[in-house]
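Chain A, query sequence.
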Amino acid sequence: MKPVKVFVVDDHEAFRHAVTAIVDEVAGFVVVGSAESGEQSLRLLSGRPADLVLMDVHLPGMTGIEAAQVLTAAPDPPVVVLLSTYDEGEVDYLDSGAVAYVNKAAFSPSRLVEVWASATG
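Chain A, predicted structure.
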């Protein structure tokens, strides 16, 4: 089985490192890149395909929701999961194209596997 290629988008470097560490704990998942803004993620992902994008909701410039809309409208889009500090019922992501929203404090290896499994059936 090929590893799931994960791309991390967050404007806080410490959180990008934390997410990378969590992904590294899960067999079959590998971080292939990261970005600190929605615009940067779109540029980088155009040349480096990913299977799964973990995207902060609140980014400077283009929001994570706006970037998710662009990513998921493309042919053969990645699975996008939005992350933020809000409770899971407080973010309206349904029109973003993202498959899920996860509170940053709840993001863990098991939550990563659960979200991927539910997105890919």
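The chain has a mean pLDDT of 92. Helices lie at 13-24, 38-47, 64-73, 109-120.
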